[in-house]
Design a protein that fits this description.
4-stranded antiparallel β-sheet; Rubrerythrin, domain 2; 2 domains; binds fe (ii) ion; 3-stranded antiparallel β-sheet; single chain; Immunoglobulin-like; mainly beta
């Protein structure tokens, strides 16, 4: 999928007109790349590569961490078949967007399972998009609607 990518850190911008990278704060470093990330309709030539990389979601509307304020827990796991967590092959980060705007980035190492949770404010609505990065297989995208 075509996308705007920061030449310094590799962040993919889903919103247009971006001048500063929200991850590394470099200015005017975005360039369009033809294969910035893969989407759920991507079919690997062989094996189960896409099943190990497409982010999957679980949404918990009764937020567990801040129940008095209310929150929506967005759990993301990589992927339908859990991705390896080995030093030579692991998920390095999971980036979250709300309606194309960057909202969070979670860095991972091979020491933890390839998953992350963010806690949206109560009443948040819109499209949550996620791009994960595998140090071998690149970036993969998926999205879910919060109603
Ligand atoms: Fe991978």
């Amino acid at each position: 999928m075509k996308g705007l990518v920061c030449k310094v850190c590799g962040y993919v911008a889903l919103d247009e007109n971006r001048s500063e990278c929200p991850i590394c704060h470099a200015k005017n470093t975005f360039e369009e790349q033809e294969d910035a990330y893969k989407t759920p309709d991507f079919k690997a030539v062989s094996g189960e590569t896409e099943k190990k990389h497409i982010p999957t979601f679980a949404i918990v509307n009764e937020g567990s961490l801040t129940p008095s304020n209310g929150c929506i827990d967005i759990h993301v796991r990589i992927g339908e078949i859990i991705h390896p967590a080995l030093p030579e092959h692991h998920i390095t980060e999971i980036t979250f967007y709300l309606d194309n705007k960057f909202i969070a980035n979670v860095y991972l190492t091979a020491e933890i399972n390839p998953a992350a949770v963010i806690h949206l404010k109560s009443g948040t609505k819109g499209k949550i998009q996620v791009i994960e990065n595998c140090n071998v297989h690149g970036k993969w995208f998926n999205k879910v609607e919060i109603k």
